[in-house]
Design a protein that fits this description.
The protein has 317 residues and is of the alpha/beta class. The protein has eleven helices and 14 strands. Strand 4, helix 4 and strand 5 form a beta-alpha-beta unit. The relative contact order is 0.14. Bound molecules: adenosine-5-diphosphoribose. Adenosine-5-diphosphoribose binds next to helix 1, strand 2 and helix 4.
Length: 317
């Protein structure tokens, strides 16, 4: 899509792999990659641009060092999409919620600069704790809720699908899964929406195995953190964030599980929560409701109340 500009804030593992995926799609004019560490985004941008003749894409990657005073953001002005990855990742044993105070300060300052320089952007938030950082970005930008989206459900669903495919020994393309709720302890895997080659999951795997896979999905991020020992996952997360950005850039109308503002759907109101939504050029076109079992709906409502309490706190952070 000629002329489209996307900015990725934070050139760590998540941000740099997201920038790579976006550039390789070859649908953007420019991918801006920013960081507060001088030279890091410029160096990564140069490296990515040098891969263009081999990978065969034209998108230009531009690295920008930003200052705490907001300097540098002017170069990203008028971005159509901004992905916020700035913030600390977890260490082994930490929950995502342990990052809230540090990352809230970072995300708030980033969001204010984004609002100033790219006032029409759709913002995709990935910094953790995800549901809270998404709510905070909506507050700090003052953008309409439809234009501030969090990435979590795409990733959690991908992890669930991968777990099921391995357990059932089938290709990932045979498997459909879904998770809703929060990107944390109150994640709600939705077995009633899961299938293998069109067959309900309960006909393919026994209940104990399904329970185990659900549990592994809920702890999918922690499992990677424990193995890496420094830093958290980024290949699957960046794939998820980049696909969401692509749906916005192409105004595709794809339905994806994302963290979005829920206003009456499922009997839940006034909270950023993981649900399915249709994505277009303006961000969220609409939340898509589906039939849930009583247990799944109760789980979603429980998740909503848990994140509502935390999201109320972020306004003051
Ligand atoms: N503006 C821009 N970049 C920033 C800022 C800021 N205000 N503050 C920190 N950063 C940068 C850091 O300098 C670092 O390069 O954010 C980057 C974070 O990179 P990593 O430490 O590699 O972390 P990453 O794995 O990319 O995770 C980023 O995503 O999954 C979540 O929990 C994770 O919140 C974390 C975020």
């Amino acid at each position: 899509m000629p002329g489209k500009k996307v900015t990725v804030v934070g050139a760590g593992f998540y941000g740099s792999t997201t920038a790579q995926r976006l550039a390789e799609y070859d649908i953007f004019d420019t991918v801006f990659l920013t960081d507060i560490i001088e030279g890091k985004p410029e160096g990564l941008a140069l490296d990515l641009n040098q891969s263009r003749p081999i990978e065969g894409f034209q998108t230009k990657v531009v690295g920008v060092t930003t200052g705490t005073d907001g300097s540098g953001y002017e170069q990203t002005a008028g971005s159509d999409i901004v992905i916020i990855t700035a913030g600390l990742p977890r260490k082994p044993g930490m929950s995502r919620m342990d990052l809230i105070e540090t990352n809230a300060k970072i995300v708030r300052s980033v969001a204010e600069q984004v609002a100033k320089h790219s006032p029409e952007a759709v913002v995709i938030v990935v910094s953790n704790p995800l549901d809270e950082m998404t709510a905070l970005t909506a507050i700090a930008t003052g953008f309409p809720k439809a234009r501030v989206i969090g990435q979590a459900g795409m990733l959690d669903t991908a992890r669930f699908t991968n777990n099921v495919a391995e357990a059932a020994d089938v290709p990932v393309s045979s498997v459909t899964t879904l998770t809703l709720g929060s990107h944390g302890d109150t994640m709600v895997p939705v077995p009633s929406a899961c299938s293998v080659d069109g067959k309900p999951l309960s006909e393919v795997l026994d209940q104990a195995t399904i329970d185990e896979l659900v549990d592994r999905t809920r702890n999918g991020g922690a499992e990677v953190v424990a193995l890496l020992k420094t830093g958290s996952a980024y290949y699957a997360p960046s794939a998820a964030a980049a696909r969401m950005a692509r749906a916005v850039a192409e105004d595709s109308g794809a339905v994806m599980p994302v963290c979005t503002w829920v206003d009456g759907e499922y009997g839940i109101s006034g909270v950023y929560l993981g649900v399915e939504a249709e994505i277009g050029a303006g961000g969220i076109r609409k939340v898509v409701e589906r039939d849930l079992t009583d247990t799944e709906l109760a789980g979603l409502k429980e998740a909503a109340e848990a994140v509502r309490a935390k999201q109320a706190d972020v306004a003051d952070l």
